[in-house]
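Appendix B. Extra example for self-study. Work through it before the problem class; the solution is given directly after the inputs so you can check yourself.
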Amino acid sequence: MKKLHKVLFGSALLTLAGTACAEIAEDTTYGYKYTNTADIYSPGGAGTVGNQRYDMYIQNLALGKPASASSRYNPGMFGPEQAVDGIYDSAYSGVQNFFHAADENKAWWKINYAETAAGIDSVVIFDRAGYTYRLDDYQITVWDGDPDGGGNLVWSSDIFDTSNTPRKEYAVPENVAGTWLKITNQVPEENASTNALTLSEVMIIGGKESKTGVYGNLDGGWIAPTFTSAADSTLQIDMNFSAADPVYDVLDVAGQFTAGGTLALNLLDSANIANGVDYQIIKAGSYAGSFTKVNISALDSANVVVLMNKLNSEGKISFETGRIHWKETAADTNFANNANWSSAPANQSVLYGVYTGSPSTSRLASEMALDQLHMGYSAGASGTLEIGAGGKLTVASQLNIGVGGAGVLTVNGGELDFTRNGADVEGFLVGQNSGSNGTLNVIDGTVNTYGFTVGTNSGAAGTVNVSGGSLNIRSGNNLRVGIHGVGTINVTGGTVTADCEVYMADQPSGSGTLSISGGMMTVNNGLSVGTRNAAVLNISAAHWP
Amino acid sequence: MNRLIVAYGAHGNSRGMVNQTGGTISVKDENGAVYFGSMEYGGTGVYNLSGGKLTAPSVKYGHTNTTAAFNISGTGEAVISGAVAVPTRLAGGTLTAGSITDTLTHSNGVFAPGGVGTYGTTAVTGTYISETGNLALGKPASQVNNYQNGVLYHAGDAVDGNMNTFSHTDPASGTNQWWQVMFSEHGNQSFDFVKVFNRGDDGWRLTEQGSGFHFELYSGTLEDPGEMIERSERFDSTSWSQGKELALNFEKEGNILRLVRDFPENFPLSGDNLTLNLSEVQILSNAAEIQMDLKSDASEFDKILIDGGSMDVSYAFLDLTIDDLVNVAPGTEWELFSTVNNGTLTGDFLAVSLNGMELTEGWEFADGILAFNGTRNQVPEPGTMVLLALGLGGLFLVRRKR
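Solution. Structure tokens for the complete assembly:
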């Protein structure tokens, strides 16, 4: 039932000349399932803006309809309804999921699939995996009423011999219409005890229809098609912002879209990119999965970044303009090299480690001043920076290590200076938003700062490791270890001096741990272990005057 | 630091745990403290001091809606110049306090008014209770194997303080059936007696069908306990019963006690009746020590002023250190314990020692007052002193080696 076919679509067909047609695998085992297994698939063809909709519905008249049977193998198990529950895998999630009659002669299963006489295209039977030999010598009959309550036989099939295949499909003549369908075991009586009637799923296919403008499964047993981007595939979205009203590729799936692999944005023209406008590049009945890499190299030299916080859940992206960012295709690993940035970063607000699947790693060995530094900007992104000997990074107003993704800032021989006071809950955050993971390592050198936050919002994790050098927290605002998130500070060497108040587990959803096993920590004001939730202070070998 | 606040209490979820196993913490501000709570919303604070040193002006409630526990054990050292004003357990280590205003439960370690080697006064306005300590409680334990190699019924269930849980070995090891606990994690230690609680009340599997058990003493780690130091007598159904005090009469000290089953030759060697099932093993030691320093002329000495509070010293040793044992004027008195405002001192110390020796002729301790009524230089000759130290001093010296 799986085949590869060329996706050809109406008016776009003519524009495809010279571009690769995507190989889309089609699987009609149970409804229409499309999977992109190709290197690059782009609605409208790569390099051309187009809309591709997948909307071939299939109607399963049996789904969820009242079913009954002559017997069942175990009371409470293997009920007749399990053959029409939409789960055709007989061992779904490791649970036995099929109808199983008792070992009796002429066992039957029947269903009232329609209220008024309805025609049938075909009947699909999913057999129990591993036991397909059992479904041998059975017969399908269609009735205009309850077969055991006065209904008349409309049609009866041949007695099918086993095909030993898990999925069997039988065409029904066009003029056959009824309200009940019955499957009867016609195996010879002497074999009845070993060839019990078992059915994983029965589909009564009423028809197949392309439906415009609708999403999701529909009443009447209409099953929407799904589309999956496989892990090694690339979905390319062409966008053209030459006019104020942009045009862009749209992948339109009536059923579920499952993200995976790479999303590549191809900017045919970026002249009129607007800030903060959502563009729905994937329309679907529902969304699952996530892209593991995003390729936005087309925007590397522009002060524009793509926001993908709605990509996996709603199929939408938007742009943030006026954002200086580290390039995905950086020339080297020198944090201070202007060529690695979309424009010169000095004294600016910059993003570092912006996109999922494109980790940024660099080192600073010279002096550099920034207004704001956001590391590990979006979910799945990661930014790693080491400040080595000769390096000094001064941040004036905002330092977020791990915004939505992972950020690691390591001071190893150099210096970090955060100079803004009065901003403890919004100025310097190690682990900012849900899903973020921020780490500040002090190995050698100096960190001078005002109070900051480790583990800010719910779902965020922040860690500060001090193994050498010094971390100096000036008086002013507070050090908070776990506001709503999880904050951890480990001191194994070096010195930590806090001329501020220290609050651990600051809010009822936060938690904080401070472990001192070496070095020295001085708190010149108060230290609160467990402010509104649970916190732990471990001291094992440190000097804490 | 000015203040260390354990469980701030800004929300009912407030929970603070401090585990100090080493290092030093100093709360320096003279008005500062280790506070339990600060606000009215409650919460639970625990400070476990099992190593290192804590110095603070006081340990007290910042708000009494907070539940507080201050636990000193192991080698922890707490020097609190002012009040210890929360429920405190001294199960090891050292505590020096300006005053005890809540409850201090003392089962092991040293309570040292004025500090060791310096002079000062501790006021007791709360309650001091001495008790026999269980050295095994919560300590690392292991056994020959776990029942069915599982994670249930592990060795620690016999030292968890819960009679409803039990350890359980597996019959796979045949007649090699043992269980052990490292009852001291800070060197060798003596103890007074052992109590063994078998699974259930009937004694099944410990002394059934002629079987019995003995104890072995080691000094090492659970993984490598080294050579056996000493072995106890064999206990059986006639010498052991549930929870009976068993004196092992060890001459030497160790840090690991192993319980080993002994099977008679005709024992039915199969199945679960081979296994070792222990609800609880307690290694009990009277090791609570009050240490006080005194000058020979009584011009300075440590004092405990029981000011409206109470002290029961029934399970404590009083260990006195005098700077000059030779030049003491007859008639000198040191009022070590005094009571005012209906304060009470009850019970007799288990023993009173002076510079590590039993009080000799001329010395008397009664009603909290130490007095010397002998003659000057009435000190044993050096030779006699050695004998004393060997014979009697052992009572005092051995038990406190750690």
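Self-check: Confidence is low (pLDDT under 50) at residues 1-21 of chain A. If your reasoning did not lead you there, revisit section 3.
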